[in-house]
Write a structure and sequence with these properties.
By secondary structure, the chain is an all-alpha fold. The protein folds into 2 domains: 37 residues; 83 residues, Cytochrome c-like domain (Cytochrome Bc1 Complex, Chain D, domain 2, Orthogonal Bundle). Helices cover 57% and strands 0% of the residues. The longest helix is centred in the first third of the chain and has 37 residues. It is rod-shaped, with a radius of gyration of 23 Å. The termini are far apart.
């Protein structure tokens, strides 16, 4: 009888511990993904956190059209910067660029969340990333 109680107690403790551990790890994962979406960090080796911008030529062309329609008035038609920063050789993650386009920055850059969906923002990122492979004109 005493052995049965000990086994039941140990089983209950294991279930409670497992549940607490699962909840903690699940919550940590949720916080990590939320932080990853809003992070301003440099690109990391943890590529699984970042959506990868495709570099298909058609997507880059689409991104350039969107860029000229919505971004060129601040970043210049050649993306060298005017009111906004130069977009050549950006040293930030695609996740950061996505977040900046979607949500903007108060008093610095407007949000394009209502104007562009994820596919359009991905096209914009593809175009911006294509700028770093172009040699600068001197």
């Amino acid at each position: 009888m005493r052995l049965t109680r000990n086994i039941i107690s140990a089983g209950a403790a294991a279930v409670v511990s497992g549940t607490a551990l699962s909840a903690t790890l699940g919550f940590a994962d949720l916080i990590r993904h939320k932080a990853a979406r809003t992070s301003h960090q440099q690109p990391t080796a943890d590529r699984w956190l970042e959506p990868v911008a495709a570099t298909y030529p058609a997507l880059i062309v689409q991104g350039r059209e969107l860029y000229l329609a919505s971004c060129a008035h601040c970043h210049a038609a050649d993306a060298t910067g005017d009111e906004g920063p130069d977009l050549h050789d950006l040293q930030v993650s695609d996740r950061y660029i996505f977040h900046m386009i979607k949500f903007g920055e108060p008093h610095e850059m407007p949000s394009f969340a209502k104007k562009y969906g994820p596919a359009d923002i991905t096209a914009l990122i593809s175009y911006i990333r294509s700028l770093r492979s172009q040699p600068s004109e001197t």
